[in-house]
Amino acid sequence: MSGRRPGPYDDRGSLAPGPDGLPPGPEHQVLKSLLGAWALAACAPAEADAVEEHLGVCGPCADEALRLREAVGLLQRPETLDLNPALRTRVLEACLERRPPRVPVPEWAAAYDTETARLDALLQDFGDNEWHAPVRLRWYEGDEASSRRTTVAGVIAHLLTVDGLVAVALGLEDPLGDVKPEQPTPSGRTEAYWRAARFPPTRAVRGPWREQSHRLIRTVCFTGSDTGRMPVPYGDFALPLHDAMLDRAFECWVHGEDIAEAVDYPYDPPSGRHLHDMVDLAARMLPLVLENRRHRGLAAPVERRLVAAGEPGRSLRLEIEGSGGGEWLIPLDSPAAKGSAEHEVAHVALDGAEFCRLAAGHVPPREAAAGQEGDREAIKDVLFAAASLSRM
Questions:
Q1: Bridge partners of 150?
Q2: Is the pTM of this model over 0.70?
């Protein structure tokens, strides 16, 4: 008995051609009908294997397959291989909607978790040129714009050292180690870290920054809800932990924008929910900042007696439009006073991201408000107070 298989096959086990040089009809027609799906990579694995085996013995089908693949290439838009920095956040949100984590991230730490993940995704594929790209940190001192030149790596070192304030408050390791800053402020700690480095910061700073951010999130997840009220000293003031984490998320986003601008890469503002929380933190801090500026002669004095604590007084309505929008009544006469619509003397409207950039010292106060109405002096004082929230 011969070893050849019955049917229209040659010695190699392939379909033997018919009189016209083409493989026999029925199977050839079936495989030919699959060429369009094969060109679109839409065949099942077994079908794709059969089509590709057929193309090796059928010249006309091979030519047709080549034309179809070229046509598909013209129809499909080329896509960048760079991952969207927001991809991790979207994937995590989709997963958590289906299965809540066993130890959830506190709501007041979610913005920090998201913004550090977004920035880390941006940094992931940076080469040496990007890490050493120049960045200018900007903020306001008094009523004057200030700046400090550094690099992308220097910005991450800055975030590492200032996030270290939260780490120390939680009993974690201080990234400064044995280095002692002249002042325990964010700028003092950053300058001390830069001075102590034998060489300018490089891509190596990403690992310690990323690991510290992970430790912060893990720690607040396991320490209970009461931890949010723990004070975090910033040198010349303190914030409760839940506000400090939001402050760190805010600065991470702002400096993420600085870095993206330096390497010419798009970078979106935070989600509406997180942006709203950042605006709310700044709005709650404005009365105290305004009072401090008044004591230093940088804001108009109160023309009448101070309002008693908890009582309504002159107020400015801060209207935030767009993503993260809302309204806040800012008491003007005393940090202890209560904002009151009945005592409203001015109204300012800004976009949410623009207000945060003002609070970061990235927008001149005189150019910030999209809409202004009422007491011009009160408006000026509040806009400059917002810019005074910024620091290196």
A1: 135
A2: yes
User: Do the beta carbons of residue 69 and residue 39 sit within 8 Å?
Assistant: yes
Q: By the 8 A CB rule, do 347 and 319 touch?
A: yes
Q: Helices 25-33 and 59-75: crossing angle, nearest 10°?
A: 10
Side-chain half-sphere of 30: how many Cα atoms within 13 Å?
6
Separation of alpha carbons 107 and 98, rounded Å: 18
Beta bridge partners of 134: 151
Residue type at 347? H
CA 249 to chain centre: 8
Measured in residues, the chain has a length of 392
Task: Note down pLDDT in tens along the chain; length 392 residues.
Answer: 333 333 443 444 344 444 444 444 458 888 888 888 888 888 888 888 888 888 888 888 888 888 887 787 666 555 554 556 566 666 666 665 665 556 788 999 999 999 999 999 999 989 999 999 999 999 999 889 999 999 999 999 999 999 999 999 999 999 999 999 999 999 999 999 999 987 889 999 999 999 999 999 999 988 766 677 899 999 999 999 999 999 999 999 999 999 999 999 999 999 999 999 999 999 999 999 999 999 999 998 886 666 777 889 999 999 999 888 999 999 999 999 999 999 999 999 999 999 999 999 999 998 887 799 999 999 999 999 999 999 98
Q: From start to end of the chain, where are the E strands? A: 134-141, 144-151, 231-233, 238-240, 312-321, 326-331, 338-351, 371-374
* Contact indicator for 88, 118 with CB cutoff of 8 Å: yes
CB 152 within 8 A of CB 262: yes
